[in-house]
Amino acid sequence: MAMTLRLSDQRNEALRRRADKEGRSVEQVVNAAVDEYLARHDADEEVRRLGVAAAGRWRTVLDRLGE
């Protein structure tokens, strides 16, 4: 899927410089950034899910500790 990404001149230049330093294309750097973003948010959702499950499992203990 092709898309257009609008960046400020400053961001565009910084992205180009970063890609040059890493010997990668701007597209590769952007794709890596998107992959990292998605992985981080998937991990955050998993931690939240596990927290809710643990709170439910330990509800009576947590209630007693709160007294």
UniProtKB/TrEMBL annotation:
<dbReference type="InterPro" id="IPR010985">
    <property type="entry name" value="Ribbon_hlx_hlx"/>
</dbReference>
<protein>
    <submittedName>
        <fullName>CopG family transcriptional regulator</fullName>
    </submittedName>
</protein>
